[in-house]
Inverse folding.
């Protein structure tokens, strides 16, 4: 450890002997979280079964208080103001904390409230990223990735700086926490972090140019009387030019608001588009089951069975067919898993046309018209245009 300024002038060449350091140790986070969890539980809070960073306290009156922690950043919510004040006072007695008031900025995410509802965006984070890369004055584009873009690891272009490429992609991955519209493009460029070339860097720069044209875009959460859980799934069959693996995607809605989404390359090569879609359905069902259990921890219920929307008739037929045959042997585990969920009546799989599919934005590059349509239906809007 370097001595602080003025130390040597006052104490000559003496040094401080460090007996124990909390920050910088691998187990420091676990030690802090264990202590915090013990304290919160003593206050009568219950730890979430699926999300261990969420703590809830329910009252006989029907009110509840919710606490979510990320390392040493804490968000407290609920409809019992007196309980929240008591918790803050007791936490101040146990830890050195600072109350920042109403939630406005959290982990790089900006939270604003309006007549429309509550919105979450990362505008400042995006501006800082563009300023860091020197692209604040770049020419904007309408879509993050061109239609039918195919990137390969066998490129004829020159290699680029790995550290810079990886740093930019990591920042874009974090930005995609509120920017669903760049999730697929970020998924593609993140596959070449080991050996990036100029064409890969150009794809990253195009994402930045798109962000420059949509700085204020974010998620909007509106109050709704719909108490249902819905998921849309899609798959891009053999979309990867590297290994011909497919890309699965899902986006889930709770009470009509988008809450989770994912765009992930499948672990095995699918032999048909039906198989790729079927694996995407399995991924969407897992996400719906997780959301259902999180709502139980929040003392909330949903109406009717959860809905999974898929535009592939063959995949839906396999899911509802009780007969196992040779054509479905290679997806046997997913088949039994999906069939079990359908038989329980907890999930239904209605068919809907491809023209209404909104998960396309997570599996392929789209034209501007189709891209804007999907983004609008997903609830991504320009937050600052409303205010």
């Amino acid at each position: 450890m370097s001595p602080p300024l003025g130390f040597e002038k006052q104490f000559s060449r003496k040094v401080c002997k460090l007996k124990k350091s909390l920050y910088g140790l691998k187990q420091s986070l676990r030690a802090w979280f264990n202590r915090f969890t013990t304290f919160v539980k003593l206050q009568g809070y219950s730890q979430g079964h699926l999300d261990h960073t969420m703590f809830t306290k329910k009252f006989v009156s029907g009110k509840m208080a919710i606490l979510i922690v990320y390392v040493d950043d804490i968000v407290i919510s609920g409809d019992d103001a007196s309980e929240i004040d008591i918790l803050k006072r007791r936490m101040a007695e146990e830890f050195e904390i600072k109350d920042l008031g109403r939630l406005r900025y959290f982990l790089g995410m900006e939270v604003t409230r309006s007549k429309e509802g509550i919105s979450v965006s990362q505008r400042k984070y995006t501006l800082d990223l563009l300023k860091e890369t020197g692209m604040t004055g770049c020419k904007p584009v309408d879509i993050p990735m061109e239609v039918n873009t195919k990137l390969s690891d066998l490129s004829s272009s020159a290699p680029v700086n790995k550290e810079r490429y990886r740093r930019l992609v990591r920042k874009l991955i974090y930005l995609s926490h509120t920017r669903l519209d760049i999730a697929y493009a970020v998924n593609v460029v993140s596959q070449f972090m080991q050996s990036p070339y100029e064409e890969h860097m150009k794809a990253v720069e195009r994402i930045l140019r798109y962000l420059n044209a949509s700085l204020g875009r974010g998620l909007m959460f509106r109050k709704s009387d719909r108490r249902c859980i819905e998921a849309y799934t899609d798959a891009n069959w053999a979309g990867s030019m590297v290994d011909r693996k497919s890309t699965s995607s899902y986006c889930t809605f709770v009470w009509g608001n988008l809450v989770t989404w994912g765009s992930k390359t499948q672990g095995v090569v699918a032999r048909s588009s039906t198989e790729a879609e079927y694996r995407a359905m399995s991924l969407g069902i897992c996400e719906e089951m997780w959301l259902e259990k999180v709502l139980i921890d929040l003392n909330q219920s949903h109406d009717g069975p959860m809905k999974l929307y898929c535009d592939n008739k063959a995949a839906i037929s396999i899911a509802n067919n009780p007969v196992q045959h040779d054509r479905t042997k290679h997806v046997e585990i997913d088949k039994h898993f999906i069939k079990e969920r359908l038989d329980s009546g907890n999930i239904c799989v209605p068919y809907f046309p491809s023209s209404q599919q909104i998960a396309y934005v997570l599996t392929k590059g789209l034209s501007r018209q189709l891209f804007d349509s999907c983004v609008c239906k997903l609830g991504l809007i320009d937050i600052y245009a409303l205010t």
Residues 273-297 form the longest helix (25 residues). The CA atoms of residues 140 and 212 lie 6 Å apart. The first strand starts at residue 46 and ends at 47.
